[in-house]
Amino acid sequence: MEHMPPNSHLLGGALHVTFTHPLDIIERVPLVCLLEITRRCNLRCVHCENRCGEVSAGELSDGQLLAVAEGLRRLGGETIDVTGGEPLLRDGWDTLCARLVDLGFNVALVTNGTLFTQGRRELAQAAGINAIGLSLDGLQATHDGIRGLGFSAGSPFRLAVAGLEQALPHFPTTVITQVNKRNLPELPLLHSFLRGLGVTRWQLQLCIPVGRVRDLAEPFVLDPADLETLTKFIVERNEGGGPLRIDTSDSIGYYTQREPCLRNGGQGGYWTGCQAGIRSVAITYDGRVRGCSVLPPEFDAGDLHTESIETIWRDAERFAYTTRFDHQKLTGKCARCQVGPLCRAGCTTMAYWTTGTIHENPYCLHGLSQGAPCPSR
Fold first, then answer.
1. At what angle do helices 227-239 and 187-197 cross, to 10 degrees?
2. Which helix (H) or strand (E) holds 65?
3. Is pLDDT of 18 > 80?
4. CB-neighbour burial class of residue 314 (10 A; exposed 0-12, middle 13-18, buried 19+)
5. What is the distance between the alpha carbons of residues 239 and 260, in angstroms, rounded to a whole number?
């Protein structure tokens, strides 16, 4: 959630809070759903959270997916991000997306881009898809090193760029980059490359230590100390203006004077807690319901093979990690932080996978006591 509550203020770099947390009083509506329609994937990315590859036996049928979508619509859902695995490998992906559009959803297709040929782009247009999210994790050597293990059908980078060139003239298109130790030094060059292609929106998110990345012998996930380099880059590029806006995911930032430069493409705003299970929901490739797709199974709220999405969502206790967040359980620096009750340890997923608890998060600029003012503020 990215706005300042009306009865709070920033003074001397600290947030003084005298209000009921906004996430405790807003209406719970699954406005955004991340929907994994398959585990099947043509790539074996070293940072894949789900270790995607082969089809899962538990994948929901088309009929089940549509029933879920109808339930989400009755609950007030507005946007569905269709992903995988690689969603283009599911038979009938375009027909499914068209049905979601017919139900009234804004539908975004999130793809690795390697299969987004002219023919599939035309299918996406015919389906009424509203936006494309396409992954690009560096220039060719870096991207192929991350995503091209065992891939024999060419360069994933070249194929993804060809897919990007198909998408850009026809859809609002966001390039998504998982930032890690390999690609952090390359971000300035990648920024110039994307600008040259005509990209106007670029989303940066931290690689989270889950899935295949845990098998790597090399350090791959950024250290908290690397956040200074990353946020300095984001702030300078956003302050520099130009058509390419950098958006940050929920895993970056928190309560320094740079915060307004990091939110909403540098247009301002503040983090006020994780919305998983409050305004967003995720459905895994095998039908499990979570507030966020990257949370572990112990955070599952239900199974769509046995219950409806409406039954699951309406039981707020199943999402108690956000719906009943207790700031008195914060630990470490988060427990001593003046804005801890508002921040709620930042990104729940990053907190869990780095500390084993949702109540402490080392990936926090405020906790690192870093973050110079925005250049023009």
1. 30
2. helix 62-74
3. no
4. exposed
5. 11
Q: In a 10 Å sphere around its CB, with 0-12 CB exposed, 13-18 middle and 19+ buried, how is residue 196 labelled?
A: exposed
Tokens 């569905």, residue located:
80
For the chain, list the strands marked E by DSSP: 8-11, 14-17, 32-36, 79-83, 106-111, 131-135, 173-179, 201-206, 245-248, 280-283, 288-290, 302-303
CA neighbor of 348 nearest in space, from 335, 337, 361, 339: 361
Asked if residue 270 lies in contact with residue 259, where contact means CB atoms within 8 angstroms, the answer is yes
Strands 106-111 and 79-83 turn out to be parallel
Dist. CA 91–CA 247, nearest whole Å:
32
Residues sharing a CB contact under 8 Å with residue 342, sequence separation 6 or more, in sequence order: 5, 8, 15, 17, 21, 272, 273
Specify whether the CB–CB gap between 203 and 177 falls below 8 A: yes
Alpha helix positions (H), 216-367: 227-239, 259-262, 309-314, 320-323, 332-336, 340-343, 348-355
Listing DSSP states for 302-315 in one string gives EETTTS-HHHHHH-
Q: Is 265 helix (H, G, I), strand (E, B) or coil?
A: helix
pLDDT tens per residue, range 317-331: 999 999 999 999 999
Q: Which amino acid is at 227?
A: L
- E strand intervals along 77-233: 79-83, 106-111, 131-135, 173-179, 201-206
Q: Measured between alpha carbons, how far is 225 from 370 in angstroms, rounded to an integer?
A: 9
Q: For residue 80, what are the β-bridge partners?
A: 33, 107
Residues 6+ apart with CB under 8 A from 9: 15, 16
pTM over 0.85: yes
| 107-117 confidence digits (pLDDT tens) | 999 999 999 99
Residue 151 has a pLDDT of: 87
Tell me which DSSP letter residue 55 carries.
P
Q: Which helix (H) or strand (E) holds 189?
A: helix 187-197
Give me 154's structure tokens. 């060419």
> What are the tokens at 46?
């070293």
